[in-house]
């Protein structure tokens, strides 16, 4: 048996983002553990957690609200990526890969919100 959210491509992509960000955050300097490392991990995990929570089916309005939270978390990840890049914690390739995944997720969230609104 699986939950509804596990079948959603948007949730699968958000799960990938959370795992990739976690792996990258492991390479940040130890003095960032309670600052940028923690912040980027929480933001990245929040994307998928909000998509999952919103999929419970209570109402379309509620699902759209949780998708908005997920989108805000993606934007927070981007801001953290920019800080990590400026502090030389990320290679150009890793930054670009994660940034591109964030752009893709923002587009997918917007599309999913529109689809839910049309129901």
Protein topology:
Layout: H1 9-25, H2 36-54, H3 60-86, H4 92-118
Helix pairs in contact: 1-2, 1-4, 2-3, 3-4
Task: Give a brief rundown of this model.
The protein is an all-alpha fold. The chain is built from 4 helices and no strands.
Give a verbal description of the structure.
It is a single chain. This protein is mainly alpha-helical. The protein has one domain: 23S rRNA-intervening sequence (de novo design (two linked rop proteins), Up-down Bundle), CATH 1.20.1440. Helices cover 76% and strands 0% of the residues. Helix 1 packs antiparallel against helix 2 and helix 2 runs antiparallel to helix 3. The protein is elongated, with a radius of gyration of 15 Å. The protein starts with 8 loop residues before the first helix and ends with a helix. The mean pLDDT is 96.
């Amino acid at each position: 048996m699986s939950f509804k959210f596990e079948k959603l491509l948007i949730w699968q992509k958000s799960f990938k983002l959370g795992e990739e960000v976690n792996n990258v955050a492991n390479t940040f300097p130890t003095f960032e553990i309670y600052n940028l490392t923690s912040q980027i991990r929480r933001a990245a995990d929040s994307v998928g957690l909000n998509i999952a929570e919103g999929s419970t089916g209570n109402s379309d309005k509620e699902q759209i609200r949780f998708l908005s939270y997920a989108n805000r978390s993606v934007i927070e990840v981007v801001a953290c990526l920019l800080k990590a890049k400026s502090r030389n914690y990320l290679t150009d390739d890793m930054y670009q890969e994660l940034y591109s995944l964030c752009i893709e997720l923002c587009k997918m969230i917007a599309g999913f919100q529109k689809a839910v609104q049309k129901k």
